[in-house]
Specification:
single chain, alpha+beta, Pnp Oxidase, Chain A, 2 domains, seven-stranded antiparallel β-sheet
């Protein structure tokens, strides 16, 4: 078992000069362009008093995360399940890591910094558009401390963007069916069609209803 930094390092060679030099203290033009093309990011946060870390996906049309400058990112908070795991963590501990992904690109962008939750109109109004007239409840403002492009090997191994990587419809049961198996029909009472209608209604407020795909899992009653 590895129980020390020295024991860990004995298993691996030292990081190359290139891998260390690529870390920046802000976003250069290449990184900002990457963010502008990313429809998906993952937020990593941690609370206090021994709370387990949390990783949560965030998605939108490419450019839904705004880079104000080399040291400031704005991430709108969209409708979700209202557990607020990430947001509660950030109230207690402002450290935040963000991983940006662009479909078809094997490299990923890692950005770390300190977050604040902003509900002032000058922040939320930035995300109002003709197709999404309702502003988010709040915006995560990230003060960038570290940023670097991650090597492509993980995604090259996984091939997530390849057509053959897509699972066939029906491979997995629907979300409702899986939750019903976990929780019971007394708690999961809506049908797949009702769940899809609920998702469409929520996304319609964001001007994204047409982005909801048809279900591919096995139907539930």
């Amino acid at each position: 078992m590895i129980d020390s930094l020295a024991a860990l390092r004995r298993l691996y060679p030292q990081a190359s000069a290139r891998s260390r030099a690529k870390q920046r203290d802000g976003l250069d033009e290449t990184m900002r362009r990457f963010i502008a093309h990313a429809p998906l990011c993952v937020l990593a946060s941690a609370g206090q008093d021994g709370a387990l870390p949390d990783a949560s996906p965030r998605g939108g049309l490419p450019g839904f995360v705004q880079a104000l400058d080399a040291h400031t990112l704005l991430i709108p908070d969209a409708t979700g399940n209202n557990r607020l795991d990430t947001l509660e963590n950030l109230v207690l501990d402002p450290r935040l890591g963000v991983l940006f992904l662009v479909p078809g690109v094997h490299e990923v962008l890692r950005v770390n910094g300190m977050a604040r939750l902003r509900d002032e109109p000058e922040f939320t109004a930035r995300f109002v558009t003709a197709t999404a007239p309702k502003p988010p409840r709040l915006v995560i403002e990230l003060a960038v401390r570290e940023a670097y492009l991650h090597c492509p090997k993980a995604l090259m191994r996984a091939q997530p963007w390849a057509a053959q990587a897509r699972v066939a419809p029906g491979t997995f049961p629907s979300m409702n069916a899986m939750l019903r198996a976990q929780l019971g029909s007394a708690i999961v009472t809506e049908s797949d069609a009702e769940a899809l209608a609920r998702y469409r209604a929520q996304l319609a407020d964001e001007g994204l209803a047409h982005h909801v795909p048809e279900p591919t899992g096995s139907p539930s009653a």
